[in-house]
Amino acid sequence: MKFKKIILFCLELIFPPHCIFCDKIVAPGTKICQGCVCAIKPVSAVRCMNLPDSGQNIPCAVLYSYEDQVRDSIIRFKFYGEKSNAEFYADQLSELIGNRMNASSFDVVTAVPISHERKKGRGYNQSELIARKIAEKLNLPYRECLEKIRDNPEQHLLPRTERMKNVKGIYRADKDLAAGESVLLIDDIVTTGFTLCECARVLLENGAKAVSCAAIAQVERTPC
């Protein structure tokens, strides 16, 4: 492990790392420039999402508000192949989960899935990249408990009144992977929360013991 760190440090001397948020070159071994450290204040909160059908509250830990440099960072990560950002997001989320949630109560980590077509076109599911790394850091198994069975319009393109209907019935849970488990569900951005709520509903209806969520950023905030 020490040798690996030395190799990575040497590589960063040759290929300097860039700030996760503003893309400026930063010193080897760092992820954020000093300007962004001062400018970006984490929300680091747990919000409540209410499942429309059952009224059950689902906790969701979120790191940042989805604005300015944070928004730019996630867009580059999600659409422009900056997959290495997942390590930083997972580090920060794992720390938040450890501080604000009972991490020892979780049995398995999973991610909000994207359709096979979208994953093929993009090359990866950004939420899965983060979820797999969080699973490693929390010493938990990662399982693909959910599948998106059909494509649908992206949530951010729709008015709020259409978003709940847009995600209804598009996810399927694997009972063999979810039943009896306390599931930590990972996504990249929380807007209205309808996507996470629908995924949580499907997991619970297929036997999951409990579902908690975590995401990099939020558009709307309803704290617990």
UniProtKB/TrEMBL annotation:
Phosphoribosyltransferase domain ranges (all copies): 128-217
Signal sequence annotation: none
Domain of life: Bacteria
Residues forming coiled coils: none
Keyword set, alphabetical order: Transferase
Keyword set includes Hydrolase: no
One example GO MF annotation: transferase activity
Annotated ranges, domain Double zinc ribbon: 11-49
SUPFAM superfamilies to which the protein is assigned, alphabetical: PRTase-like
UniProt KW Transferase keyword: yes
InterPro entries: ComF/GntX_DNA_util-trans (IPR051910), DZR_2 (IPR044005), PRTase-like (IPR029057), PRTase_dom (IPR000836)
Family assignment from sequence similarity: Belongs to the ComF/GntX family.
Protein's recorded name: Phosphoribosyl transferase domain protein
Provenance organism: Caproicibacter fermentans
Organism placement in taxonomy: Bacteria, Bacillati, Bacillota, Clostridia, Eubacteriales
